[in-house]
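As the next step, I selected for study one protein, both as residues and as discrete backbone shape codes, as given directly below:
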Amino acid sequence: MHKVTEHQDPGYTIVGNHLTQHRSLSGLAIGLAAHIQSLPEGAPVDIRTLAKRFPEGRDRIAASLRELEAYGYLERVRRRTDDGRMVTVTISYNNPAATHARRAREDAEQTKRRTAVAPPVPAPTLAPASPLAPASSPASRSSAASPPPSASGPAPAPPPSRHPAPRPSLPSPVRPLPKPATHEHHTAAAALLANLRRDDPRLLLSVRDVHRLTPPVAAWLERGASPDAVRSALTARLPDTLRHPAALLAHRLTELLPPPLPAVAPSAPSAPTPPAAPPLQTCDGCDRAFRAPVPGRCRDCRHQANRKSEEPCGGS
């Protein structure tokens, strides 16, 4: 192979060899990843838009996007809009391995800062009193004139000190954020955090803060707290000046964590557990979020496809 390299004007995209020479990704997936990275911020990259741009069908494009999502080049996050609808937001990573390593370093440094304890403050030492008092002191003259106490009598108690030595105060270590035992409530916890800005616009959290605070909220839900109770605990009595909303929420989630529910006695009849809702999926036809046990198309897209298949073909 011989390559001819020419200087390019501004407007090109840098793509790493870890993507273009990936051993497990298909050619369509590599091409879609390069195309998505070349688009500006906020451009639509849903399945319908990509199907209009490329000759491949929606099914092949949807399968290629799932490949990129499996290897970390794409992340599709479900979020609730202001009108209550669930939409899918696509996040593109040009180097997922480097991004994960950087986040791991930042999390390790943050954990190290939280668990670091300052050394104890030493207690102040008082200067010893002089054994010889000045001769001109009236206290010395009165003590010299007074007779010595009897050997059989009790010794006089020393006068109490007016300025006791202060006790050293140790800073309390920062408690780690609670974590749930399972990942069952992560989706509901992330939706609850994303919707806190409806209660107070100052509680607008970034994607990183939502990912960091999702496990503590899931721990609350796992211990039997309702979403309304968690929302009330996080938004009640907010200070007038709120500079770090994520730090305030992390403090409340740690300090106000409810205890686990007590175990039900064997003799008490246990209430039947409702069936678990199927997970959220992304429609391969309209890129809309819907609940289904396996990926595929939503009900509207399936109904539309069935209507097209049932239409009679034209002819004489």
